[in-house]
Design brief:
By secondary structure, this protein is α/β, with parallel strands linked by helices. The protein has 10 helices and 13 strands. The protein has an 8-stranded mixed sheet. The protein has a 5-stranded mixed sheet with strand order 2-1-3-4-5, sandwiched between helices. Helix 4 packs parallel to helix 5 (137-143). Pathway: Cofactor biosynthesis; riboflavin biosynthesis; 5-amino-6-(D-ribitylamino)uracil from GTP: step 3/4.
Amino acid sequence: MDSSYYINLAISKAWKYQFIAFPNPAVGACVVRNGKLLSIGVHYEAGQPHAEINALKKAYTDAFPYSILTRLKSSQDIHRFLSKYHNNFFHNCSIYVTLEPCNHIGKTPSCAMLLEKIGIKGVIIGTLDPNKLASGGTKRLKKSNIYTKVLNSKNSYNLLLPFTKWTKKNFSLFKLAIREDGTTTNGYITSQDSLNLVHKIRTKLDLLVIGGETVRTDRPTLDSRFSNSKKNPDILIYSQQKEFDTTIPLFNVPNRKIIISDNLNRLDHNNFIMIEGGLNLLKHLNKHFDMLMLFISHKHTVHTPFDYRSLKLKKIHSYFINKYDEIYFLIKF
């Protein structure tokens, strides 16, 4: 297998956790020895172990299932253990990581320093880190005579697009769910797996935007009840008409602000925004989002299914979250 194969494996895994690690980027990593894949890891959440550390831990604990490492959770503890007890396990291994290993100590220790300590054979990097605070891992690894190669992978760069946006100013995501026949009304469209993912993303938001007509018609809750965090986003109802039935569930979710406005000026004052709506709102707010996360339910197949290309957007990734639901990530040309 060539380098692009393992990098693309790591990229595909990381896309499944896109937005979940906010404000950190989505990152994936693979550990390989003599052409055999030992493990894949991703960065699950800010403050928790990075993708490289999760991949190294899995490779080690798969080989030594009774090791104390299986019980260690924090980045600091995993780093300390592997630094001291790696026993040259990784000497013939290479790690493929979508983003340059970090070279600074923040909420977690430096991944580049750990790779240096365990004497890994090679580090193949999808793309360099645009964050100057964390970058420099490549130079450190090369100084330690570790084989280090940067692929400048377009797919790795695309994985970073939300991160590069929200670190410069803000990032606005439009979420649209649609059935294969092109309909978007009459109750839940996607499966529980997709709902769980959307609710996880909601816990990371600074602001959730919804159209006034959708609020009146669907009477949504727009909370995060299917996530572990249960942190509910503040809501901006985009509507010229300011009067709403306050028995609609979203008005009765605790610990949230609700703003009703006929303009979107508040988008400029929030870091991570998600707009939820249908095709009409998507067209109306075309200039106000950076990426479309499109859920297509294939539960009921039709002869002529909805084609994402009709939206005139560019696909940068897609995957099936389960048997029926397909998720597309689309940007403007």
